[in-house]
Amino acid sequence: MRVGLFVTCLVDLVRPEIGFSALKLLEQAGCKVEVPESQTCCGQPAYNSGDAATARALAERVLRDFEGFDYVVVPSGSCGGQIATHYVDLFRDDPDLKARADALAAKTYELTDFLVNVARIDRLSSDFRGTVTYHDSCSGLRELGVAAQPRELLAKVPGAKLVEMKDCRNCCGFGGTFSLKYGEISAAIVDEKCRNVRATGADAVVLGDLGCMLNIEGRLRRIGDERTRVLHVAQVLAGDA
Questions:
Q1: How far is CA 93 from CA 46, 55, 56, 57, 96, in A?
Q2: In the chain, where are the structural domains located?
Q3: 108: which strand partners?
Q4: Is 0.85 surpassed by the pTM of this model?
């Protein structure tokens, strides 16, 4: 399988190690992985802010960069959701681009969804000693149906024990530009998420979206929690945690 890895802006600029973990997992699954050097933003920030022209221009670039692959894999529910569910809306008035967006959406997968339902991996050469709790990101869960997949994979990691938190499916408060526009509401939401994370006593909170990861980790550190690790699921699955 020839896979195009859509790294995402946040991974590229803030936590590139997550991209390398995703690459490792895909190669271990037997995929031929390519990372187009010309890739840039998926356009979600512009789309969410009502700047359809910028979002459309970025989406056209993603089409050019990735439509030639057998599959497109994204270590992010939000960026994956943008490509798989919102590009069709952006191109609804252009039949040719809409058809291309439909085709791209059909082969775009969030990382854990791809590993479970396409690559169908049955084991992982990783190790993690400790307890983890999983946070479901809004876009991955509600736009792509990612919930059971990361948990199924975490169960294959020797030494990892999953402890579910209260309201694991509730938003962390990030929401992209929401956290900028509605800072006080966002802070209240992430405070509740952090309370639920800490109540589990888990060694780490694991998730599949870097926006959520940075938001939760930042709040945990600001309230003085230096113990709880905040990890992308790719890092745990690849043995890079």
A1: 19, 15, 12, 14, 9
A2: 2-117, 130-238
A3: 72
A4: yes
Give buried/exposed letters for 120-132 (b at 16+ CB in 10 A, else e).
Answer: ebeebebebeeeb
Strands of the 2-5 sheet, one edge to the other: 32-34, 2-5, 71-74, 108-110
User: Quick one: CATH architecture of 130-238?
Assistant: 3-Layer(aba) Sandwich (3.40)
Dihedral sign (CA 218, 219, 222, 228) = negative
Q: pLDDT tens digits for 132-145?
A: 999 999 999 999 99
Structure tokens belonging to residue 125:
């050469």
The total of other beta-carbon atoms located within 10 Å of residue 169's CB is 13
Write out pLDDT tens, residues 161-189: 999 999 999 999 998 778 878 889 999 99
Domain with residues 2-117, CATH architecture: 3-Layer(aba) Sandwich (3.40)
Cα–Cα distance, 81 to 153 (Å, whole number): 21
Rounded to an integer, what distance in angstroms lies between the CA atom of residue 91 and that of residue 166? 39
Span 197-234, pLDDT tens digits = 999 999 999 999 999 999 999 999 999 999 999 999 99
